[in-house]
Amino acid sequence: MNTWKWYVYIIECSDGLYYTGLTWNFEKRMQQHASGKGSRFTAKHGFKKLCYVEQFSDLTQARIREKQLKDFSRKKKELLFERSEKSIK
């Protein structure tokens, strides 16, 4: 049986804003963001780099975490990047 994997991620946009998203196909989604076709937000603000990613086997838990991260302040997100092993350095 094939189990789904879900990814919650934060990318930094070209203008310094952060975008938080959720996907099941991580590599394809990053390519979409980089090419300007990932979301209206990243199409408008550009793609600079991936900052953070978490993997989940449960979609409900992934959605809960995405909502939680979206509610984080900029400072709290940056502290998460600094302190987490899941950050992309």
Spell out the blueprint of helices and strands:
Blueprint: E1 6-12, E2 18-23, H1 26-34, H2 40-45, E3 49-56, H3 59-71, H4 74-83
List keywords for this structure.
alpha+beta; GIY-YIG endonuclease; three-stranded antiparallel beta sheet; 3 strands
Question: Could you describe the 3D structure shown?
Answer:
- With 89 residues, the protein is of the alpha+beta class.
- The chain has one domain: GIY-YIG endonuclease, CATH 3.40.1440.
- It contains 4 helices and 3 strands, in the order ββααβαα.
- It has helices at 26-34, 40-45, 59-71, 74-83, and strands at residues 6-12, 18-23, 49-56.
- Strands 2-1-3 form a 3-stranded antiparallel sheet.
- It is globular.
- The termini are far apart.
- 17% of the residues are buried.
- The mean pLDDT is 93.
- What is the helix tally? 4
Query: Structural class given helices, strands, pairing?
Result: alpha+beta
Mean pLDDT: 93
N-to-C span: 34 Å
The named CATH superfamily? GIY-YIG endonuclease
The helix fraction, in percent, is: 40-55%
- What gyration radius follows from the Cα positions, in whole Å? 13 Å
Quick recap:
Helix content is 43%, strand content 24%. By secondary structure, the chain is of the alpha+beta class. The protein has one domain: GIY-YIG endonuclease, CATH 3.40.1440.
